[in-house]
Amino acid sequence: MTCRGTHSEIRAVSAVIVLGVLLDEHLSFAQHMRSVGKRAARSFSKVSRVSAASVYRTVSTVALPVLAGMLPAYYEVTIAGRIDNARDGLVRSEVGALRRRIREEMVDV
């Protein structure tokens, strides 16, 4: 559903983020809690991989992110900068697709 005004257009969405909290159309926090749970699981997974990789005494600090299945920090910063430069005027799903494309380009280089 879309409402059109004289100079703008407002699209209806099923959920919106307000002050970092995801609210759905029923003002329920269920979707927010699922989202937080998924992010926490991903973070815990990364931390546990780093912990597992750090048990090796001879692992270099350069190899540690690779063993943990993460990109080195300078790649993450470069990716974030490229996304920030190109995200103006894009909706959330387009930014997600842009992020995936840029990550693939960076990894393939």
Structural notes for this entry:
The chain is an alpha+beta fold and 109 residues long. The protein has two domains: 1-57, no CATH class; 71-109. Helices cover 54% and strands 13% of the residues. It is built from four helices and four strands, in the order ββββαααα. The strands form two sheets. A two-stranded antiparallel sheet has the order 1-2. α3 (73-86) crosses α4. The termini are far apart. Keywords: Signal. Residues 1-30 form the signal peptide.
Specify the biggest β-sheet.
Answer: 2 strands, antiparallel
Task: Return Rg in Å.
Answer: 19 Å
Weakly predicted, low-confidence segments: none
Q: What helical percentage do the residues reach?
A: 40-55%
Short summary:
Residues 1-30 form the signal peptide. Helix content is 54%, strand content 13%.
List keywords for this structure.
109 residues, 2 domains, two-stranded antiparallel sheet, 4 strands, 54% helix, signal
Describe the protein's topology:
Elements: E1 2-4, E2 9-11, E3 15-18, E4 21-24, H1 30-53, H2 64-67, H3 73-86, H4 92-108
Antiparallel strand pairs: 1-2, 3-4
